[in-house]
């Protein structure tokens, strides 16, 4: 696996990764999440052009097996989405992408990664907590995180419990080195 910036040709494959990564939510009684459309190509292109769309690519053929998109929100790098194709799960790709994002955050002078996630999905909040993310309390939410949560709520994601989480970029040293 190699972490690299996404190319324009990768973007349809990222949508395929997202569809496949959503399928296991059906087994948790979350069919709406399983059936949710992946980010549109123009949205992925916006992240790519801004330099904030990275893929974990197969060493052999270079095809994306996982991806992460992020953007600065209130002085932190907010992970908008990180998805791993189920066929490539449990190989450290999500962890490597998060390490890469933390490294980039530090390079940009951003002290932390933030994200929003489901509390009761094993590969969501419990996974991020194992990586060192901590759940933010309501008073700790920044205006940007409140806006994101409001958008998620309007999209129906609050049907299941969700939280905002934060990882200090300097504390991400326990994650693997960027690029592998």
Q: Which features does this protein show?
A:
globular; alpha+beta; Aminopeptidase; 7-stranded mixed beta sheet; 180 residues; 24% strand
Describe the protein.
This protein is of the alpha+beta class and 180 residues long. It has one domain: Aminopeptidase (3-Layer(aba) Sandwich), CATH 3.40.630.30. Helix content is 32%, strand content 24%. It is built from six helices and seven strands, in the order E-H-H-H-E-E-E-H-E-H-E-H-E. A seven-stranded mixed β-sheet has the order 1-2-3-4-5-7-6. A hairpin with a 2-residue loop joins strand 3 (64-73) and strand 4. The protein is globular, with a radius of gyration of 15 Å. The relative contact order is 0.16. Residues 176-180 have low confidence and may be disordered.
Set out the fold topology:
Blueprint: E1 2-5, H1 11-22, H2 31-34, H3 41-49, E2 53-57, E3 64-73, E4 76-84, H4 93-107, E5 112-118, H5 125-130, E6 134-135, H6 143-154, E7 162-168
Parallel strand pairs: 4-5
Antiparallel strand pairs: 1-2, 2-3, 3-4, 5-7, 6-7
Query: In angstroms, what separates the terminal alpha carbons?
Result: 6 Å
CATH homologous group name: Gcn5-related N-acetyltransferase (GNAT)
CATH topology: Aminopeptidase
Q: Give average pLDDT, whole number.
A: 92
Overall structural domain count: 1
User: pLDDT below 50 for ≥5 consecutive residues: which ranges?
Assistant: 176-180
CATH class: Alpha Beta
Strand content: 15-25%
Tally of DSSP helical segments: 6
Secondary structure category: alpha+beta
What is the H/E string? EHHHEEEHEHEHE
Shape: globular
Rounded to an integer, what's the Rg over CA atoms? 15 Å
Oligomer: single chain
Biggest sheet strand order reads: 1-2-3-4-5-7-6
Number of strands: 7
Query: How much helical structure, as a percent, in the residues?
Result: 25-40%
- Main sheet specs: 7 strands, mixed
Gross CATH architecture: 3-Layer(aba) Sandwich
């Amino acid at each position: 696996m190699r972490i690299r910036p996404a190319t324009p040709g990768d973007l349809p494959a990222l949508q395929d990764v997202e569809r496949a990564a959503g399928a296991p939510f059906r087994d948790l009684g979350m069919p709406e999440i399983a059936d949710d459309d992946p980010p549109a190509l123009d949205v992925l292109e916006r992240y790519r052009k801004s330099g904030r769309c990275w893929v974990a690519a197969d060493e052999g053929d270079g095809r994306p097996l996982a991806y992460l998109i992020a953007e600065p929100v209130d002085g932190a790098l907010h992970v908008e989405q990180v998805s791993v194709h189920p066929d490539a799960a449990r190989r450290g790709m999500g962890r490597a992408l998060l390490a890469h994002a933390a490294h980039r955050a530090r390079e940009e002078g951003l002290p932390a990664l933030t994200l929003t996630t489901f509390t009761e999905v094993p590969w969501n909040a419990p996974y991020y907590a194992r990586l060192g993310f901590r759940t933010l309390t309501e008073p700790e939410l920044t205006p940007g995180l409140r806006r994101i949560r409001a958008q998620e709520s309007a999209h129906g994601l609050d049907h299941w419990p969700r939280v905002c989480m934060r990882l200090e970029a300097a504390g991400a040293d326990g994650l693997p080195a960027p690029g592998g």
